[in-house]
Amino acid sequence: xxxxxxxxxxxxxxxxxxxxxxxxxxxxxxxxxxxxxxxxxxxxxxxxxxxxxxxxxxxxxxxxxxxxxxxxxxxxxxxxxxxxxxxxxxxxxxxxxxxxxxxxxxxxxxxxxxxxxxxxxxxxxxxxxxxxxxxxxxxxxxxxxxxxxxxxxxxxxxxxxxxxxxxxxxxxxxxxxxxxxxxxxxxxxxxxxxxxxxxxxxxxxxxxxxxxxxxxxxxxxxxxxxxxxxxxxxxxxxxxxxxxxxxxxxxxxxxxxxxxxxxxxxxxxxxxxxxxxxxxxxxxxxxxxxxxxxxxxxxxxxxxxxxxxxxxxxxxxxxxxxxxxxxxxxxxxxxxxxxxxxxxxxxxxxxxxxxxxxxxxxxxxxxxxxxxxxxxxxxxxxxxxxxxxxxx
Amino acid sequence: xxxxxxxxxxxxxxxxxxxxxxxxxxxxxxxxxxxxxxxxxxxxxxxxxxxxxxxxxxxxxxxxxxxxxxxxxxxxxxxxxxxxxxxxxxxxxxxxxxxxxxxxxxxxxxxxxxxxxxxxxxxxxxxxxxxxxxxxxxxxxxxxxxxxxxxxxxxxxxxxxxxxxxxxxxxxxxxxxxxxxxxxxxxxxxxxxxxxxxxxxxxxxxxxxxxxxxxxxxxxxxxxxxxxxxxxxxxxxxxxxxxxxxxxxxxxxxxxxxxxxxxxxxxxxxxxxxxxxxxxxxxxxxxxxxxxxx
Lengths: 392, 294
What we know:
The complex is a heterodimer of chains A (392) and B (294). Chain A has 392 residues and is an alpha/beta fold.
């Protein structure tokens, strides 16, 4: 029987459209884990993460740069083909170079009539968030709080509503509950024998990026109770998985790993634990609290080098987060599936690989992804060899 | 205890039968489509490595013209006929290679990385790095002092820099694959050929032919391109002596010399490097029997 979570994996568009039809609510699409979807949730909007597909490109080849990753191209192609026509708005943050340019590309290829009042545009269909290049420093929080206030105003103008502090605080409470529940799930994944497969855990997290968070929380509470009581365990070589754009396409890798005798118990895949490892601290200014949380989201795009005068220039912040994700999970190997042209992941990889090997004394497998199922299947041999190698 | 290893590759199927009690029997076999290999020099002793209790009874290579399931069965039947053994004499069979899953009669499968490493370490116990250049895949493995694989890297999706690349270029220049290495060694200089795309490299070779460049210099460029791609893998994994070259392409003397120049030292190569994977699989079968891991 298909569970509510699985429904979003098999046909996310149908599930979201069903919600929209039933509630007559608005749906905004967004890219990347740094977008403050909690503000949209507070406005009564359903925030849904935009993902790609394995379909061949039909509309975007003439627009994308040759070094553009296939995931970005695929998302845009779906938009240009009208697959995302159910979206009432799109939020683009300044994360990697390609995603940042999505603001222009989406406007160009998915044109919409402007919502105006007295000739003035109320809110652009594609809203850009200037997520700061540097996420730490004395003025960053002030800057980003102003950016999010502006973002909030744009949403308010576009929907002709007011998002009150009370609504924001209620939304923050729902999101914090989600983060707590996801952390409970993580605790279960630390168990040995493992009560839940990597694929199932991914599926739960993936669904949370597509469905109302309060509904997700209710379903997750039930699932956690059920998982905690499970007698059947999920065997396999315990592995850490890192890489770019783990949506329903790249998630096939979880299955391939399981088919090869492995089991993903922890990950860094641009959503999942990068997103819920800290709560939104309630503040007298909820927007500032959201900004603070959002700046702390651990995205490889925000890899920071040391300040001038340091003896090293390696991205220590990313290593510390990676270390936290591996510790306690009894991981015996790490797999990096880095998509071609994903410079954010590729740049930090050698440093993280060396640290993982040194600190945890576990092997690290690097594979180049191309966001196709065929490409993922080609990785099977390497994964099998990797698991054999660890098993001896 | 008689075990067998079968390596189902993209272009050929290799079989090795091992016994821990029989004396090494060298044999050469020919079949309608493939070449078979003599065993002279394949024993650990001949490779200047300490002898152990395992002995190779026979080896066989078939060019893969049929599917892996049929081809592997044919190869196994032929080697059994050649050695006078029956299937029931084989205690344990391990399959390796890209087509390993098609070998229904194997008790276990093992990846190429582990099989080549095991075979290379058996032949050269001083092996710490193994470079396997197969028909469509190149792999570098780092070994510990017990022969266990510590790490490995593989070529990416393109076949540029593999045996298939060499074969395509040899066809283009109308020389046999066996001649490629020898001819390249006679080149006075190298005509550079791109190493990142087989199709573009083909165009470059045609361009060199049109310019009247000699076959030797073009072949030297082709070999240089393959060596560069393979050497990248060695650099990625970190070179540690001794380096063993395995896989069919290792027979190419020009390639071996180019790699030795890049690595700044000697590369060890078994006389019949193409059967290293099958040998490793047969040894893994034997290891499993000894350790009781079935």
